[in-house]
Amino acid sequence: MKKILILPGDGIGQEIVAEAVKVLDCLREDFGLDVEMEQALVGGSAYDEYGTPLPDETLRLAQEADAVLLGAVGGPKWESLDISVRPEKGLLGLRSGLGLFANLRPAILYPQLADASTLKPEVVSGLDIMIVRELTGGIYFGQPRGIRTLDDGMREGFNTLVYNEAEIERIGRVAFEIAKKRSGRLCSVDKANVLEVTELWREVMQRLSADYRKVELSHMYVDNAAMQLVRAPKQFDVMVTTNMFGDILSDCAAMLTGSIGMLPSASLDENGKGMYEPIHGSAPDIAGQDIANPIATILSVAMMLRYSLGHAKLAERVEAAVEQVLDDGLRTEDIWSEGTQKVGTAGMGNAIVAALRA
Ligand code: IPM
Ligand code: MG
Fold first, then answer.
1. Active site residue: 10, 66, 190, 247, which one?
2. Whether 137 and 188 share a structural domain
3. Helix, strand, or coil (residue 161)
């Protein structure tokens, strides 16, 4: 039996994960999914209880699990804490502690939601991009880092953007493999005109392409990539990039699809073990109001079924159930438009479970 660790986290994390757990329960009861679930604290809620955003017990449970489902972390309540114990550190500690170097962030526009995008329907209809973000290296983890006081009393903040060839190569291989199974187009995003580290990034990607002759590799500077994403996003199929560029570009890509509340993600280690989470944050401003969209988290369960639990068929069923409720015109507030029916977080979760059972 496979083990899943459930980490709701903070803010809307609690509510959206509860809906995803309903989906998992339904799959267990009605579809023979053989998993056991355990729950633990991470982020601000863990800090409140244990004085650390990533208790040893949580990390241990995550290491023992076959897959982790995470809601979101953070909130204004913890913003004034020292950076070393902020909720975000819990998430970053899980990513590095589990070796989850490959972050897959698909941005798919559901045709039912073409109106919800701020871009013209013809620009985004049919959009289907996969962003592959490096997740355990780069400026997020590079040493040295900190804030120091210089001799003249002036303070200076510093971080280090560093990648070695092995780190670039392993994320590159993940991206090439994915591109091979899709349209065969891979765009590597860097800032090789300014940063040596991404000059090396580009060189390694170029070298790797010799092993993937069927994949057409292109390179783009990150500023241009940001522009192209809103100008003509359908030119992209698979994109591969560094930790911080991927953070920024994936938020941008998310909005193309109408709402950041729709996008799931998978963070994988070398062996396909993964942590699954919506790409949005904890949205403290709407927490506890039953208005958050649980779809990104439920689609994260689908990714978990596919990548870590070996249940591609069940993944398709979950995705089909989401499509079904969208077809039926049900919408949470973030994707609502005239003529559709507004439902809350729990209402959306229940409808997806009902569609699964139907
Ligand atoms: C994300 C988030 C995180 C990140 C934060 C919460 C640390 O923005 O998953 O994209 O920067 O990676
Ligand atoms: Mg982000």
1. 247
2. yes
3. coil
Task: Tell me: pLDDT of 259 over 90.
Answer: no
Q: Which residues line ligand 1 (CB under 6 A)?
A: 74, 88, 91-92, 247, 279, 281
CA gap 145, 158 in Å, rounded = 5
Residues 22, 142: one domain?
A: no
**pTM of structure:** 0.94
Helix (H) or strand (E) holding 195: none
Q: Which atom of ligand 1 is nearest to the CA of 251?
A: 10
Q: Has residue 118 been placed in a domain? A: no
pLDDT at 268: 98
Cα of 31 vs centre of ligand 2, distance in Å, is 34
CA–centroid distance, 33 to ligand 2, in Å, is 31
Residue 92 domain boundaries = 1-110+262-358
**Long-range CB contacts (within 8 A, 24+) of 251-255:** 251/279, 252/226, 253/105, 253/107, 253/129, 253/131, 253/229, 254/105, 254/107, 254/279, 254/280, 255/117, 255/118
| Number of separate domains in the chain | 2
Residue 192 has pLDDT above 90, yes or no: yes
Distance CA 62, CA 242 (A): 25
**Of ligand 1's atoms, which has the minimum distance to the CA of residue 73?**
6
Here the tokens at position 38 are 């355990």
Residues 5-34 have pLDDT tens digits of: 999 999 999 999 999 999 999 999 999 999
Query: What is the CA 102 to chain-centroid distance, rounded?
Result: 10
E strand or H helix at 46, and its extent? Answer: helix 44-50
Q: Does some domain include residue 123?
A: no
The pLDDT tens digits for 263-317 are 999 999 999 899 999 999 999 999 999 999 999 999 999 999 999 999 999 999 9
Ligand 2 centre to CA of 26 (Å) is 30
Shared-domain flag, residues 181 and 220: yes
Does one domain contain both 75 and 3? Answer: yes
